[in-house]
Amino acid sequence: ITTPTLRGNFNAGLGVADTFCNDGADANLPGGLGTATYKALLVAATTRRATTTGTNGTGQINWVLQPNTDYYLKTGAGAPYSTSLLRTNSYGTFAFGSLDTSFGGGSQRYWTGLNADWTHAAANCSNRTNDTAGFNGRAGSGGSTGTTSISSATNSCATQKKLICVQQ
Questions:
Q1: Which residues, at least 6 apart from 77, have a Cβ–Cβ distance to it below 8 Å?
Q2: What distance in Å separates the CA atoms of residue 36 and residue 163, rounded to the nearest whole number?
Q3: Taking a C-beta distance cutoff of 8 angstroms, is the pair 53, 70 a contact?
Q4: Which DSSP letter does residue 119 get?
Q5: DSSP conformation letters of 40-107
Q6: Could you give the CA distance from residue 49 to residue 120 in angstroms, rounded to a whole number?
Q7: What residues form DSSP beta bridges with 38?
Q8: 111 three-class SS
Q9: Using an 8 Å Cβ cutoff, are 163 and 1 in contact?
Q10: Residue 148, helix vs strand vs coil
Q11: Among 27, 71, 137, 145, who pairs with 99 as Cys (CB 3.0-4.6 Å)?
Q12: 3-30-130-112 Cα dihedral, nearest 10 degrees
């Protein structure tokens, strides 16, 4: 999870969020690992989706989690991947309750744009392009290992939240 925060529109797109995830100056990101790149665990209706059905990978676009892959949580200098986090299923998502630990501390919130079934939320900061009053987006809760880990609340896009960054 990033240290700095961003408003929900990410200056008009997911590319900015992905660039943010590759900022070597953020102490929370692994950085310095050769040619590794990272993408934000975040959706937008036409540029990144996990699923359109909520039951399988139908409609996936530019999804950040790979199928049947183990993911680890960065937990300190010298051991950047020391805590097991999850294993994805054949669709590149995971069953709730299968998270080995939460993404981050209890009160942390981070933008995801996801519903609890991995579909794209209608509240999405106007597809990541607007953070003015009246526009909202979905965020996950850092202390959860259940569905609220990716979809706990709808928040104003003008608020600052962190991102979950996933190595590609």
A1: none
A2: 17
A3: no
A4: S
A5: ES--BTTTBBS-SSSSS-TT-BS-SSPTT-EEEE--STT-TT-EEEEE--TTS---TT--SS-SS-TT
A6: 7
A7: 167
A8: strand
A9: yes
A10: helix
A11: 145
A12: -90
25 φ/ψ sector (left φ>0, alpha ψ -120 to 50, else beta)? alpha
Q: How many CA atoms lie within 13 A of 135 on its CB side?
A: 16
Global pTM reads: 0.89
- Hey, which residues does 70 pair with through a beta bridge? 87
Q: How far apart are CA 2 and CA 164, in angstroms?
A: 7
Cβ burial 1-12 (10 Å sphere, 16+ → b, else e): bbeeebbbbbee
- Alpha carbon distance 166, 38 (integer Å): 5
Residue 165 bridge partners (DSSP): 40
Reported as a single tens digit per residue, the pLDDT across 107-156 is: 889 999 999 999 999 988 888 788 887 899 999 998 888 999 999 989 99
Round to whole Å and give the CA distance between 50 and 59: 7
Tokens of 13: 């797109």
Q: Tokens for 155, please give them.
A: 């928040």
Q: What is the pLDDT of residues 35-46, one digit of tens each?
A: 678 899 999 888
